[in-house]
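Here is an idea for our session: we take a single protein and study its fold together. Start from the sequence, derive the backbone structure tokens from it, and show both lines together. Once you have written the record down, we can walk along the chain together:
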Amino acid sequence: KTRTPRLRITAPFECEDESAEPFEPRGALRRKRILRCRRVKSRSPIRLSQAEARRVLRPLAPRLLAVFGSCRERFESAEEVQLLTGIAPVTISSGKRSFVRWRWSAPTFVRQTLHEFAHHSIRSSRWAQAYYEQQRERGHDHHQAVRSLAFKWIRVLWRCWHDRTPYDEARYIEALIRRGSPLAARLQALAA
């Protein structure tokens, strides 16, 4: 029986002990947390455009940073990330029967982070919305469709993280059209 390896969380920043004084106003504490999150985002190995970051990444940047870390040699392929995070499904075969199920042995924090990122991207990304609708038309329920979208997002994010390039939605849509993806045809139909 093989087990999914434990997630090694590496981050490019040190934990700061910022224990607040007992009489410090709540607003000052909130400002400290916001500044700390901004520092994390500025060092994030995954860079998205400003508009995309405002819409989707702002609340999830520190969590995505914890998922990927700063060591580029940690994951050799996007498939490793998909398996480790629990987004990739498990196929079980026995005799003539075969079925696909949800992966149980995965860190829930990481799975939830990617699930939430994919869910929020449906509203801000044209191709993500088209892909989600395509999965729903195939008969998948909401969470199944979001997990399959997260599976797709991991490949995109892994490439951006590995190559140290910012995500550009227009460039990704051009690549879908160039490859003749059915998703590209759906995007062109929605645009017309």
